[in-house]
Amino acid sequence: MMSVDISKHGCTSVHCVEPGVKVNGEYYRNNLLGQKLLPDMGRLSQDDFFVFQQDGAPAHRARDTITYLGQQTPDFILPTMWPPNSPDLNPVDYSIVGVFCRRKFTAPE
Is 33 helix (H, G, I), strand (E, B) or coil? Predict the structure, then answer.
């Protein structure tokens, strides 16, 4: 699994999750969001205002994750406002993963 943030400012680094790691809400908050994605987004946006939206993966919908994002991001779109499937709002799921797959991307060891 991989995670990346995309904005009008560009893309953050691609963060790969080690094979076999279970990505639950706690892992997602503590490792991906807290240590990688949100700090990357802050640097990328130069601490400018940004809106954070994600897809409906179970770790993203976890109650503690929603609370955490509401506290840690300048503006967070709540899950009730997330469209069920949107290629326009989820470019990673619909475009970028396909590029990696076509290039036979493998996670760094």
Answer: helix
